[in-house]
Amino acid sequence: MKKLVVLVGARPQFIKHAPLDKVLKKNFDVVLVHSGQHYDFNMSKIFFNSFGLSEPDHNLNVGSGTHSNQTNKMMVEFEKILLEEKPSGVIVYGDTNTTLAGAIATTKLNIPLVHIEAGLRSHNMNMPEEINRMVTDRISDILFCPSKIAVENLKNEGIKSFFSGDVMYDAFLLFKKGVEKRVDKRFKKIIQDKEFALLTIHRESNTKKNVLKRILKNVSNLNMRVIFPVHPRTKKILKTFKINRNIEPIDPVGYFETIYLLKKCSIVLTDSGGLQKEAYFARKFCVTLRSETEWVETVRNGYNILLPYGEKLDENIFKRFKPQKYKYFYGNGKASQYINFKLKELL
Ligand code: UD1
Ligand code: UDP
After folding, report:
1. Beta bridge partners of 29
2. Is 50 close to ligand 1, i.e. is its CB under 6 Å away?
3. Which residue ranges make up each domain of the chain?
4. In the annotation, is 58 catalytic?
5. 268-271: long-range contacts at Cβ-Cβ below 8 A with a sequence spacing of 24 or more?
6. I want to staple 279 with a disulfide (CB 3.0 to 4.6 A). Which of 8, 113, 268, 340 is the partner?
């Protein structure tokens, strides 16, 4: 069997890899590498446990740092693994520093590079993720896009790609049935049956103290209970000021708990890429706390609206939910099978 190195490192990447893990193992000798970008239990191990993923074969343990510091450490350590493992190909997911570091180290060794979740664009070069994804797409050999718009974006840049559908949709379909059983009673008791909004914030631009403070003040105007699983980046800032009592911060939760909250909530408020889509999968109204999105289909279809910083949020926001006929923009839940099939053919 040909050897395939798969690099993960941040929360959404564990989720993206989950549906592919078993599928790829049928045809490839899979070596799983964890960069160590996310390391708290609730940001990493919880996902390996809940998806039944085996321990990574290598952990680069790079931890946190400035962009260049973190990316540099990952490249140096990942290169060592590639020289040792000599794979026939490397898979990277999404747009994090782990993605960028993995992509550069791989391509410099002339190893075929596979980018899953290619072609997304926010057209905002101030976002670290936009730089990561543009560079990764440019140097990848095989690119799999989650949406037709992503394929078009790449075509406009002269890059050929495949429309695979979204592996996060695969994950959603694969795991959603188990949610009620997998979420424990204590968690359900805390959540109760009262109406609530689900809030997540972690973007670099939204976690500057004054920006975060203003967003949370705005969110409290919704006059509704708000459940807020707090990303560690956000937690550091949140500690420095008081928030309104209708906002209930909790530790980051696992995937099953997130989908449970998503199913029960009345509205999603988020700057997360993954959660915007999951809201769409669950057919919920999503307010994206940003001025642009990579998941433009969800906005065009009336399920998602953009709320740029400074724009008012209150009960009237619900009037802006104008869902149109539901469309399956992100494939048929078999993106993982398609990717596996194509890799078998191409590598
Ligand atoms: C990263 C990605 C972002 C993705 C997000 C998913 C980049 C540039 N950004 O952002 O695209 O949406 O992951 O969640 O790669 N920290 C902890 N414990 C952890 C992890 C982080 O305390 O387990 C804290 C550290 O103080 C760290 C900060 O969070 O400095 C930010 O972490 P980092 O991985 O650099 O960026 P994210 O905001 O998580
Ligand atoms: N998520 C989670 N626990 C949380 C918050 C989010 O499991 O407390 C999941 C969420 O369901 C989605 C993914 O994490 O699948 C999104 O990751 P994140 O928002 O950190 O990053 P992004 O998608 O913006 O890159």
Report:
1. 3
2. no
3. 3-166+331-346, 180-320
4. no
5. 268/197, 268/198, 268/199, 269/197, 269/198, 269/199, 269/200, 269/219, 269/222, 269/226, 269/313, 270/198, 270/199, 270/200, 270/201, 271/200, 271/201, 271/202, 271/203, 271/206
6. 268
Q: What are the pLDDT digits (tens) for 86-138? A: 999 999 999 999 999 999 999 999 999 999 999 999 999 999 999 999 999 99
- Residue of 75, 62, 126 whose CA lies nearest to 102: 75
Q: What number is the average pLDDT over the span 52-73? A: 98
Which amino acid, 108? K
Nearest CA to ligand 1 atom 15: 96
* pLDDT tens for each residue of 266-319: 999 999 999 999 999 999 999 999 999 999 999 999 999 999 998 999 999 999
Q: In angstroms, how far apart are the furthest CA atoms of the chain?
A: 58
Q: Which of 17, 34, 202, 231 is catalytic?
A: 202
What does pLDDT average to over the chain? 97
Nearest to 49 by CA among 160, 219, 158, 182: 182
3-166+331-346 and 180-320 agree in CATH topology: yes
Per-residue exposure over 192-213, b if at least 16 CB sit within 10 Å of its own CB, e if not? eeeebbbbbbbbeebbeeebbb
Tokens of 36: 């160590």
Ligand 1 pocket test: pick from 7, 16, 35, 38 the residue with the most ligand atoms within 8 Å of its Cβ: 38
Count, in order, helices (H) and strands (E) of the chain: 15, 13
Q: How far apart are CA 42 and CA 251, in angstroms?
A: 8
Q: Beta partners for 267?
A: 197
Decide yes or no: CATH 3.40.50.2300 for domain 3-166+331-346. Answer: no
**Ordered alpha helix ranges (H), the chain:** 11-25, 45-51, 67-85, 97-108, 128-139, 148-156, 167-175, 179-182, 185-191, 209-220, 232-238, 255-264, 273-281, 296-300, 335-346
Instruction: Assess contact for 220 and 226: CB atoms under 8 A.
Output: yes
